[in-house]
Structures are given as C-alpha cells and as structure tokens.
Target: 2,3-dihydroxybenzoate-amp ligase
Amino acid sequence: MTTDFVPWPDEFARYYRERGYWRDRTLGALLDDGARRWPSRTAVVDGDRRWSYAELNKKATRLACGLRARGIGHGDRVLVHLPNVAEFLSLAFALFRIGAVPVLALPAHRRTEIVHLTRLATPVAYVVASDLRDLAHAVPEIAHVFVVGEPGEFTALEDVSAEGEPGDGPGPCDIAVLLLSGGTTGPPKLIPRTHNDYEYNLRASAKLCGFNADTRYLAALPMAHNFPLACPGVLGTLWAGGTVVLCTGADPGTAFPLIEAERVTVTALVPPLALVWLDAAEKSTVDLSSLELLQAGGSRLKAEAARRVTSVLGCVLQQVYGMAEGLLNYTRIGDPDAIVNDTQGRPLCADDEVRIVTADDEPVPAGEVGELHVRGPYTIRGYYRATEHNAGAFTADGFYRSGDLVRRLPTGELVVEGRVKDVINRGGDKIPVEEVENLLLSHPAVYDVAIVGIPDDVMGERSCAYVIARGTPPSRKDLLAYLREHGVAAFKLPDRVRFVKSFPRTGLGKVDRKALSTLENRW
Ligand code: OOB
Model:
C-alpha cells in the first residue's frame, strides 16, 4: 500500500506532547499571536516595503480567503517558487491558515525540477516570480498559476484576495510544508513537516539562539530552504517578535549595505558564502557592527574560516549541522572556541536519538566514525509518497539513515567527516548525482557518464563529469548547453568535464567513484 505520509507512532506522539515539544498549535496561529501581541512592530522589510505584524496578518488572511474562493483548501499542494520577497511570507501563512501545503522549490530550480516536483506532489497551483513565469508552460496540468509581479497571461497573486474569514484550519498533526531533500540519492524527495514538529523546530531553535523582539534577521539564503526558514530563520524571528530583513542576493555588495541600514543582528550563510563575506569585510568600510551572530551550515565549515569570523566580523559564530528531514545540531552561544570552530554542534533536543553505526547498522565504538541515524520529535518517519524508497531510507524502528559519516566527541558534539550517499555538496547546494547523470546519458554523443565530487577549498566540493563519448567527443560547452536546455538548475552543471575511454571498476564491476575522484587534483 502507498501512503502519502508516515505518522509518528502513538506512543511517540504521546511522549512528545508530554515533554512539551508538541503543543498542538498550527503555524498559522504563530502569526495570529504576533499580530495580537505586537501589531505595529515591523515583521518584514523588503526593499522599500515594511509590513507590520498586523499588515502581514491582514494580507495573509485576505490571501487565504482568496485562495479558498478559488477552491483551494485543506490538503491541496501549492508549488511555491519564489525568491526572498515579502509575498513569500503572506502566501506561506495564507496556506498554513487554510491547511493547503506549500511545496518549496528553490529559486535556482528550473524546468527539470519543477516538472519533477509537479509529478510528485500534484499541486493545484503554481506561484512563481514574474521572471520565471514561462516555466508554467512546462506544467500545464497545474490548474492555477499565480504570479508575483507582472502576470503576463496568468493571474497576479495580488488579485487573489478576498474579504472574510478563511474558515476552518488544519489540525496540528497535518502536513504544514513539503521541503526538498538535499541529502538523498536520485532526484529530490519531498519531506513532509507537520505543524507540531515544525513549530517545535523553529521555537526551540529560536530559544537556543536567543531570538527576541530585538532580533533583526537577514534572510540572505533563499528562505525556501529549511535553514533560513526555520532554524530559527525567518519563522523563528516572527515567533520571537523580531524583524525579518529580506535580501535577494547574498553577495556582500547587496547584503552589507542592508546590514548597515537595517542594523541586522543575525544571519545564516553556507560556508563558501561565509568565506566571501570574510574576504569582503576585511576590505569593506560598511558598518557591520550590529551583527551579533553568524550561523554557518549546509556543508562543512573549515576551522581556519571559523576562526576568522569573530576577528573579522566581530560577531559570534554558530555552526549548524542540519537536514531538512529534521535533526538539527548547533554549537551553543558561549561554547568554548574549540567547540565552535572545530565541531558541528550537538542536537537541539534532549530527545533527539542519535545512533552512529557501521555499514551493518551496529553501533561504532565511542569516538569512531560511522553513519548517523536519527529519530526524534521533529525528524520525519518517511518521505512523502515514497513507500518503496522509505523502506531503505529508514530503519525498521523508525530511524532516518542520514547518509552522513560523523563521529561524536566525549562532550557530545558531532563532527561531520563525509557522506555515504551519492550526493555532491557544492557549498551547501546538494547535487543529486544520478539525476544529472541520467540527463547527460540522454545526449546522443554520451555513451556513459559518472559525476564525482572533487575537493575544493572554497566550495568544499565541486563536480566533475567523466564522460565516455560515443564517437567524436562533444565539447564541454555543448554538454552544458544541453543541460541548460533541459532546464537544470545552474548549480548542478558540472564544473569540469573530462573525457575518458573507460571507468575504473570495483571488484564487483561497479564504477569505482572513489578512484575516479582521485584522478583530478584538488581544485
Ligand atoms: C541543510 O539541509 P539539507 O537538507 O539541504 O542538507 C542536509 C545535508 C546533511 O545531511 C549533511 O550532509 C550536509 O547537508 N550538512 C552539513 C552541515 N549542514 C548540513 N555537512 C557538514 N557540516 C554542516 N554544518 O543543509 C541544513 C538544514 C538545516 C540547517 C542547516 C543546514
């Protein structure tokens, strides 16, 4: 039998409620509370626009009514494909209110990903920024197309609004949002996060990071991603009564002036961006003194870079090792330098059950490297509509097999040492190797292909495609153009293409990816 969603077993749900992790509140209520408690505070800044909590709430309510009037409601999926604009938030809360489920595509996604997500989630609506609205033609099965900005032949999201009350909302154990997986093999899977578990995720994170009404959070990374969305991110800031400052690009040229102008106190970056910021800050005259906390996560931050954060940016560093599937590890504010610089932190929750195991699922001896398995109050029990895949991705007793190789220090912190799965982590952007390989294989001049990650000082890893050509090898340009034509997100295009006559094989005859990855020197 195929089920959309795998719930937590009753005894776990009961325990998580008893412990106060699950409060049976919905994410829609979070904004109701904010609008009641501090209506006139600024909730979000987007360029010249500043919306108070009351305004954001009003926009979300009107949008919820407008969506309802168009027949969109409880359990319907809505594919959201927006950069960091204020409408992302009014839309997200409108959907939370009516129990429709946002499927969060990344701004970098293009046709391949949008088509894949549409097949998997069967959304009733696609909400897209005007510059990408033509992508709607690739998914004609989606009934409604709403555009933020100039709508062209479609409907402007602005016009989807109505007076009234949105009516009954979702239950706290319903799916609140479908996030994209970064850590699994093959094309992205969808991660069903419930109101209860995601509310805990953002609330506990906000408390751990000391978020409050004075927090001014810069959303530099795309907030469609779990990290800037809820760890504690934008939602954690709104929970705490702070202000979210939206940034459409994370480059220092865009972000630094905003930090100065808006007196930003905290932001989250992936390590390659943190390096760019450090270099730029050393030369910059922009006043970054308001910055109190810099979170770095998504891929491994080098200790040398970690050490520079405090001296160059004058703020506290926090390493965040998380996954959209749930588990979050944080270094704590006030931890000794050695912990903050050299580890990826420890679990958020006392009831995050982390096991570190061998390839046979046996616990490794203390301090040794093994695969991280996890179960807990905000870690999913299964991907969305993926019964077959779930059988391998989770253990029989409900632990998620993260595919990450980690070791645990005696003090409890985790250090990420690598991965057991075929995903290239290009500075936090996760490249599903199989997906890109399959596309390249459909090129007439490609006989076989294997894409591997090559260590790189800045990005952590870059991708190299080894290609066995059919006849005359095509040019690299040709192959990249082909991938682009197929609408692949730019971060997935191989950084390097090498033509070979054959692949090294393992004893079993499988392509030896390890051997391939040592063919190229470091970047
Ligand atoms: C975050 O989430 P995803 O779902 O894009 O990717 C998860 C994977 C992890 O399994 C791990 O392989 C890698 O990204 N990762 C890290 C890391 N943080 C994530 N590897 C080394 N060091 C780190 N600090 O990337 C994510 C979700 C929530 C918060 C932060 C990151």
Remarks:
- The pocket of OOB is lined by residues 181-183, 226-227, 231, 297-300, 319-324, 328, 344, 402, 404, 416, 419, 425, 428, 430 (CB under 6 Å).
